[in-house]
Amino acid sequence: MTEQTDTQDSSPPKAGAIIVPVTLFEQNCTIIWDEPAKKAVVIDPGGDVPKILDAIKQTGVTVEKIWLTHGHIDHVGGAAELRDALKVPIEGPHEADKFLLDNVVESGARFGMTGVRNFAPDRWLNEGDTVSIGDLKFDIFHCPGHSPGSVVFFNKALRFAHVGDVLFAGSVGRTDLPGGSHATLISSIKTKLLPLGDDVGFICGHGAGSSIGQERMTNPFITGEM
């Protein structure tokens, strides 16, 4: 479990976050909370639910929601189990990923993941929607390409985003899975994420986070297609 402090801001609202790498995919399950109420959301519980629950306990937060960036097994494998354990709603992704959530068991079997379940979220998310946890409000951007229903969560006040597998430090999401499209992904990044501003920091689905400005300048998948 590694600490993430990029969401800190000198003026209200206040927030904290930790990243809990889960499963063999080393997926960045992320817990974000508002201060001082310690109301929290878990983003993309891909598996290893006991590990996630232990991180929640150690952090001392009260989880009120689960948010999903998209429907791939490494991001949703533990969602149904965690929802049952915490008795909280699941919000996201976009409904275009319904075919993935309807086939979680089949997807898990291909990677030897047992105990996973097909499920539906309590709320699908669309472009222009907002979600909140405590005093933290996030705008929703529908960013297809990696998957048809990928969404990004953006908090304007904190200059912070969780981008799932849309954008990485030095790379972009893979597009060779069902429903993927490289051209669509690059369009999502250029029309939805780059305009957020170079000062916006982000957590992504795997590996280290980055900033929009850093990726605009150095990410070969963006600079090569500007």
Keywords:
226 residues; alpha+beta; 8 helices; 14 strands; 27% strand; disordered N terminus; RibonucZ/Hydroxyglut_hydro
Would you write up a description of this structure?
By secondary structure, this protein is an alpha+beta fold. The protein has helices at 49-59, 73-76, 79-86, 98-101, 104-110, 182-193, 212-218, 220-223; strands at 2-4, 14-22, 27-35, 39-43, 62-67, 90-91, 130-133, 136-142, 151-155, 160-162, 167-168, 171-172, 201-203, 210-211. The chain has a 6-stranded mixed sheet, with helices on one face. A 6-stranded mixed sheet has the order 7-8-9-10-13-14. The protein is globular and about 45 Å long. The chain starts with a strand and ends with a helix. The model is unreliable at 1-9 (pLDDT under 50).
Question: Can you summarize this structure?
Answer:
With 226 residues, this protein is an alpha+beta fold. It has helices at 49-59, 73-76, 79-86, 98-101, 104-110, 182-193, 212-218, 220-223, and strands at residues 2-4, 14-22, 27-35, 39-43, 62-67, 90-91, 130-133, 136-142, 151-155, 160-162, 167-168, 171-172, 201-203, 210-211.
